[in-house]
């Protein structure tokens, strides 16, 4: 959609002439996906003169890049058109017609069902399911289904069905596409190598990089915000293992807008992901359809058929080595059709933070001048960084130029390559791609990798280290784009599939136009100040940074590192409280978490309560024994944690009337029976995830809640992950798998590609266990409220909104910190949407992901939650010390391990967990009394009792605006704002009832 908008001023049509202007906007704003592709198809057919089938093959091409068996002519057709436009990617079954032909096609993954029959009366019936219309079997002459990337085409004038092969063979042979490709498309790796003449910064500036100069290298690393954690947790593992590094537990650090540290701009953007309305895809199992190919250079006129009218430079993947970049710098010597210009993305340090705004204006102006002068590849470079020059954040420079050229109508005339020392993580490359970068050269990451190789004596050559890193980044990019159901880098490039968290609306609108933002605050001035602060750390006179990188502290607690909620002190205070059953000690723990006057950790830390004029006596407030029934432990599988830890949580929750959650690993059948002492190890919530591990009828009927896990807070858009070292014989038996073999659930449920599919599974589970509530687990992001409304209409009894802070036994580090958003955002949107649509009363809403104290519970209730999920906190109460080694099977306290020796170290007791939950409930009661509530349900949805505290002492967060979260959606008369009704599932209409009745003797 963004690229179609970028084309509007550079597009011409012989058929429409000046009337083309009447079709602007080419894609109407705020439309559905279907309406958008309808606009695009109409444009190609009417404005471009393409046949209907030709246009559909351009819009939704089949997977050709990895298909070595494809006919060369057809392959050339697709490759040629890939340079014309990016594929419209994602799960789709599209029906189309122009009045003369009618047809249907599936996306390259075939993730939408489409089945059809042909009758002897020449009727063709196609639907998402077979048997939609009753047709006698003897009248059916053909019965089949659409396959991935295939097309069903009916020519009404010729009165026949045109076979997929015939359609595509005819179109592929109409023009000599292979010859056109030979003349117009150049592959970077096939161009001759050039001599290394050292760094080439933008004209007029010298590079501060000096080969084999450790001081200059350290200064650059500090200027671009490198930390010791980047070296230890990202770069070295990627160089060694050629894979995206894995970690565990959640993130308990502040969002970038609340951090006291100068954060990179990438950290303000959270990756979007597909849930329910369309599925994520599996980049491993669907490798054939995945592609990292990127095209650099001008995009041709989409409505013109002129052969040889455009030139594109193809790269096999978007991460450029220094040798690759040398070719692009000197591209005119190699291919006369290209002209490159390098633009400086730095500004004078003497100008301070105020210098970045004019630098951005200068950069955009230079980009316009370069494109107008005929340069069809722009390199945005920060090579000129030195003691005298500060770098513009690469993401800001890229997006600013990208959107500026779109507004000028020039974007399709040039390609954008980013040469930056800033990018090193997978998320960095994805963000740059999302905002317009067709290729990226992370030059400082490469020199840092060589430094790591030498200092750590890695048994790899310099070339192999670089290859491993590029391979790891490529895998990571594919995983990120697949979360949205996207298969190709070309489709992801410029798609802006991110939420901005904590950035000012005017800043986002100018430089990241079209990006969703709910919490506003940080603007250009603060982003510039962060860049200046990093520069001062590098080139200032602080002795702390003289000979070492900053510690970091994002992925593990470090003194002088990033702030954490779970510090050694807070962990110790909580464990001391629960083991001694001391409410006073719990209050000391809660105070360290709740008091965020100096260290802002969470969005809810910026909220305050409006106390009642007349508080309620504490003895009139709902008792703690009732409040704890609203609590549940998080979905932690038997396998990710030990049997001892899993059963301890279950016993504790069953004693207090709360609920424990099996996670996605099944449960031993022996736990369904009560223990002799009356305790029960049965988990009340049984989870049904995409891998269906351990899901049997017996498992389903032994549940109070059946939870369909659509996404997980710590890694939305991905499947669960259990390393093989943790899969012993017992775990494998419960999961019906093989001991020692790692288990990865597929990202999508392969029976849920739409809200209708979800409704079917809800119905099936309700039939399996009519007494159980059916729950759907979603993850917070902008737009989750609409999904939750669909879940309610699909007759789910319960929905969970998980925040990105949630823990996990194993997850790529990229996902832990950069996917999903804080639960406050998703919960507020869910409440507002459900109330607006009159659906709130019939569905229970749970929130989880980083809940720690009673204050968190009260704020969650006011934002709209009926129930609350806790995972990390009860684990800490049971003995967890936050070593963050869950994925390694080496947990020293016997919780996240299957090692029999380590499991003996587990000392947790159900009483410890029970004490914790009652302490939380007592804190809730005290706050309810002050706020004037007697019953918990009175508090749900009462966002009017919340206020915002300005972070006046925080240089960066003082402008944060939470007004959208604190908006009270007006409820119509008779519409509930909390769960007080039951869903009607119409189980009496199920065919099962008739069959059971007829089967009776």
Overview of the molecule:
The protein is of the alpha/beta class and 1001 residues long. It has three domains: 2-187, Aminohydrolase, N-terminal nucleophile (Ntn) domain (Glutamine Phosphoribosylpyrophosphate, subunit 1, domain 1, 4-Layer Sandwich), CATH 3.60.20.10; 220-301 and 312-545, TIM Barrel; 568-598 and 602-948, TIM Barrel, CATH 3.20.20. It is built from 34 helices and 33 strands. The strands form ten sheets. The chain has an eight-stranded parallel sheet with strand order 23-22-32-31-29-28-25-24. Strands 1-2-6-7 form a four-stranded antiparallel sheet. Helix 8 (228-241) packs across helix 14. The longest helix has 22 residues, at 910-931.
Short description:
This protein has 1001 residues and is an alpha/beta fold.
Which short descriptors sum up this protein?
TIM Barrel, 35% helix, Glutamine Phosphoribosylpyrophosphate, subunit 1, domain 1, globular, single chain, four-stranded antiparallel sheet, eight-stranded parallel sheet
């Amino acid at each position: 959609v963004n690229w179609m908008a970028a084309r509007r001023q550079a597009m011409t049509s012989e058929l429409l002439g000046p009337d083309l202007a009447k079709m602007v906007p080419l894609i109407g704003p705020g439309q559905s996906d279907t309406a958008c592709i309808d606009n695009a198809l109409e444009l190609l057919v009417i404005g471009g003169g393409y046949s209907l089938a030709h246009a559909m093959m351009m819009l939704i091409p089949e997977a050709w890049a990895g298909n070595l068996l494809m006919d060369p002519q057809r392959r050339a057709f697709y490759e040629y058109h890939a340079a014309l436009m990016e594929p419209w990617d994602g799960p789709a079954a599209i029906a189309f017609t122009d009045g003369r032909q009618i047809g249907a096609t599936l996306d390259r993954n075939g993730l939408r069902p489409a089945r059809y029959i042909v009758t002897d009366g020449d009727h063709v019936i196609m639907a998402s399911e077979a048997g939609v219309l009753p047709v006698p079997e003897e009248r059916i002459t053909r019965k089949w289904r659409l396959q991935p990337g295939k097309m069903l085409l009916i020519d009404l004038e010729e009165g026949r069905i045109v076979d997929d092969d015939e359609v595509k063979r005819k179109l592929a042979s109409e023009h000599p596409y292979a010859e056109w490709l030979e003349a117009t498309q150049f592959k970077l790796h096939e161009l001759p190598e050039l001599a290394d003449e050292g760094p080439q910064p933008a004209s007029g500036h010298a590079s501060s990089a000096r080969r084999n100069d450790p001081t200059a290298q350290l200064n650059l690393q500090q200027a671009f915000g490198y930390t010791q954690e980047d070296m230890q947790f990202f770069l070295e593992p990627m160089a060694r293992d050629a894979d995206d590094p894995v970690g565990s537990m959640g993130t308990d650090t502040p969002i970038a807008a609340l951090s006291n540290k100068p954060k990179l701009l990438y950290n303000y953007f959270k990756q979007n992901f597909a849930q329910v309305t369309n599925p994520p895809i599996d980049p491993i199992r669907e490798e054939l359809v995945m592609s990292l190919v990127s095209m650099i250079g001008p995009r041709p006129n989409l409505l013109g058929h002129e052969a040889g009218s455009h030139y594109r430079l193809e790269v096999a993947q978007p991460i450029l080595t220094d040798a690759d970049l040398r070719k692009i710098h000197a591209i005119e010597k190699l291919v006369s059709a290209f002209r490159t210009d390098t633009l400086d993305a730095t500004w004078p340090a003497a100008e301070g933070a105020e210098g970045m705004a004019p630098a951005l204006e200068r950069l955009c102006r230079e980009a316009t001048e370069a494109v107008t002068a005929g340069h069809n590849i722009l390199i945005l470079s920060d090579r000129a960084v030195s003691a005298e020059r500060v770098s513009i954040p690469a993401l800001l420079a890229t997006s600013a130029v990208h959107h500026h050229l779109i507004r000028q109508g020039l974007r399709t005339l040039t390609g954008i390559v980013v040469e930056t020392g800033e990018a090193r993580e997978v998320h960095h490359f994805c963000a740059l791609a999302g905002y317009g970068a067709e290729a990226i050269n992370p030059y400082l990451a490469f020199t840092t990798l060589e430094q790591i190789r030498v200092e750590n004596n890695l048994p790899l050559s310099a070339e192999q280290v670089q290859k491993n890193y590029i391979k790891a980044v490529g895998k990571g990019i594919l995983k990120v784009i697949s979360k949205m159901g996207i298969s190709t880098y070309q489709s992801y490039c410029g798609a802006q599939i991110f939420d901005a968290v904590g950035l000012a609306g005017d800043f986002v609108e100018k430089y990241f136009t079209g990006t969703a933002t709910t919490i506003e605050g940080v603007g250009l001035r603060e982003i510039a100040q962060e860049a200046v602060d990093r520069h001062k750390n590098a080139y200032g006179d602080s002795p702390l940074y003289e000979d070492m990188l900053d510690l970091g502290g994002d992925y593990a607690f470090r003194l002088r590192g990033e702030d954490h909620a779970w510090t050694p002190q807070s962990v110790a205070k909580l464990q001391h409280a629960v083991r001694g059953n001391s409410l006073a000690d719990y209050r000391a723990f809660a105070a360290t978490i709740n008091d965020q006057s100096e260290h802002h950790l969470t969005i809810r830390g910026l909220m305050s309560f409006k106390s009642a004029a007349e508080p309620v006596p504490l003895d009139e407030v709902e008792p703690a024994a009732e409040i704890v029934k609203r609590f549940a432990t998080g979905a932690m599988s038997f396998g990710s944690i030990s049997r001892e830890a899993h059963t301890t949580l279950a016993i504790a929750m069953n004693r207090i009337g709360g609920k424990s959650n099996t996670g996605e690993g099944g449960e031993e059948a022996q736990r369904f029976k009560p223990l002799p002492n009356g305790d029960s190890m049965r988990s009340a919530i049984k989870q049904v995830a995409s891998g269906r591990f351990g899901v049997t009828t017996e498992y389903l009927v032994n549940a109070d809640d059946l939870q369909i896990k659509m996404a997980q807070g710590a890694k939305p858009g991905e499947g669960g992950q259990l390393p093989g070292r943790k899969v012993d014989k017992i775990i494998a038996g419960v999961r019906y798998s093989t001991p020692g073999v790692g288990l990865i659930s597929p990202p999508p449920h392969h029976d849920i590609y739409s809200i209708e599919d979800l409704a079917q599974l809800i119905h099936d589970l309700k039939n399996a266990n009519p007494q159980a509530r059916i729950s759907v687990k979603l993850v917070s992001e902008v737009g989750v409220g609409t999904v939750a409304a669909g879940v309610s209409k699909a007759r789910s009894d319960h929905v969970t909104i998980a925040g990105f802070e949630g823990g996990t036994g194993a997850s790529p580090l990229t996902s832990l910190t950069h996917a999903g958003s804080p639960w406050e955002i998703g919960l507020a949107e869910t409440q507002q949407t459900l109330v607006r649509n009159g659906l709130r009363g019939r569905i229970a809403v749970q929130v989880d992901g980083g809940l720690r104290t009673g204050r968190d519970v009260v704020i969650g209730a006011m934002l709209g939650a009926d129930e609350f999920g806790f995972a990390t906190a009860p684990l800490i109460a049971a003995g967890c010390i936050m070593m963050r080694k869950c994925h390694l099977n080496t947990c020293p306290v016997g919780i996240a391990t299957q090692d029999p020796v380590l499991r003996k170290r587990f000392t947790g007791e159900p009483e410890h967990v029970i004490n914790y939950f009652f302490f939380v409930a007592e804190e809730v009661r005290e706050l309810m009394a002050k706020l004037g509530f007697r019953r918990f349900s009175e508090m749900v949805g009462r966002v009017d009792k919340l206020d915002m505290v300005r972070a006046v002492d925080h240089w960066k967060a003082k402008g944060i605006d939470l007004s959208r979260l604190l908006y009270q959606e007006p409820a119509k008369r008779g519409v509930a704002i909390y769960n007080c009704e039951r869903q009607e599932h119409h189980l009496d209409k199920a065919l099962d009832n008739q069959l059971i009745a007829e089967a009776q003797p």
